[in-house]
């Protein structure tokens, strides 16, 4: 049981972050973060693990234990580096929006994205999210989660949603309006937009979509900031009501 945090309209900028495989993270600020080689590094170990599992001998099991430890350490390392970079590229006082990938493996609807795009099948979102959240809090950045559905298939310009919109792993081309851009960047805009519209549906309006319209005590779906973290002293923008 958790008590939902009170919802506050974002005071600073709102930044959407898409977590993927081609690029570990792409932000709506057009930052492409993380290393492409991570995918191959992690995959190599993953494949080797599979091989050893199939072998099943005593020595194979011993190697497997070592390898599992190695993979976990490597992921942890990558998660630390990636979360650090995302926070470094996000202004203090902003709200960072990520997809909630907690139950990603049990979601049949997300199957396609899970298998082809997520960093790895067994990648732990919980660990990454924990790293991201504490690093963000140190800088006065709030991390919120949104439902990941359709974020990769929807056009961030006209809102047209179709699976065919996604031309390839890296390119998005809207069948309706012809908007063409990096697929992960398009998703990051949708992730940001999802959060903004969830605020709008609660009657919290945003000025210009990026600055605050004041405070609200209404509860919001998803995550709020951790108790005890004060953003009041960090945001120096004038607030309008
Ligand atoms: Zn479009």
UniProtKB/TrEMBL annotation:
Superkingdom as given in the UniProt entry: Bacteria
Against InterPro entries, the record matches this protein to: Cas12f1-like_TNB, RNA-guided_DNA_endo/Transpos, Transposase
- Positions of the Probable transposase IS891/IS1136/IS1341 domain: 6-91
Biological process (GO) annotations held by this record are: DNA recombination; transposition
What keywords were assigned to this record?
A: DNA recombination, DNA-binding, Transposition
Which GO molecular function terms does the record list?
DNA binding
Q: Identify the residues that the record assigns to the Cas12f1-like TNB domain, covering every copy.
A: 125-191
Region feature (Disordered): 216-241
Q: Would you identify the family this protein belongs to, as annotated?
A: In the C-terminal section; belongs to the transposase 35 family. In the N-terminal section; belongs to the transposase 2 family.
Q: Which NCBIfam families does the UniProt record give?
A: guided_TnpB (NF040570), IS200/IS605 family accessory protein TnpB-like domain (TIGR01766)
Name the UniProt record assigns to this protein = IS605 OrfB family transposase
Q: Which source organism does the UniProt entry give?
A: Thermosporothrix hazakensis
């Amino acid at each position: 049981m958790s008590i939902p945090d009170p919802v506050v309209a974002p005071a600073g900028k709102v930044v959407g972050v898409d977590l993927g495989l081609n690029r570990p993270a792409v932000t709506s600020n057009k930052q492409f973060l993380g290393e492409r080689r991570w995918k191959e590094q992690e995959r190599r170990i993953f494949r080797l693990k599979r091989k050893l599992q199939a072998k099943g001998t005593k020595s194979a099991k011993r190697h497997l234990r070592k390898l599992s430890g190695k993979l976990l350490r490597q992921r942890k390392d990558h998660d630390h580096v990636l979360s650090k970079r995302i926070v470094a590229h996000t202004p203090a006082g902003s709200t960072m929006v990520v997809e909630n990938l907690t139950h990603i493996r049990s979601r049949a609807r997300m199957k396609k994205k899970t298998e082809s795009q997520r960093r790895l099948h067994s990648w732990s979102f919980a660990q990454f999210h924990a790293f991201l959240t504490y690093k963000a809090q140190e800088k006065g950045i709030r991390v919120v989660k949104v439902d990941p559905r359709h974020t990769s298939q929807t056009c961030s310009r006209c809102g047209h949603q179709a699976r065919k919109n996604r031309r390839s792993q890296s390119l998005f081309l809207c069948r309706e309006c012809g908007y063409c851009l990096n697929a992960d960047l398009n998703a990051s805009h949708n992730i940001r937009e999802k959060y903004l519209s969830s605020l709008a549906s609660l009657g919290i309006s945003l000025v210009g979509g990026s600055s605050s319209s004041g405070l609200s005590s209404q509860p919001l779906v998803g995550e709020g900031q951790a108790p005890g973290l004060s953003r009041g002293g960090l945001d120096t923008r004038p607030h309008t009501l």
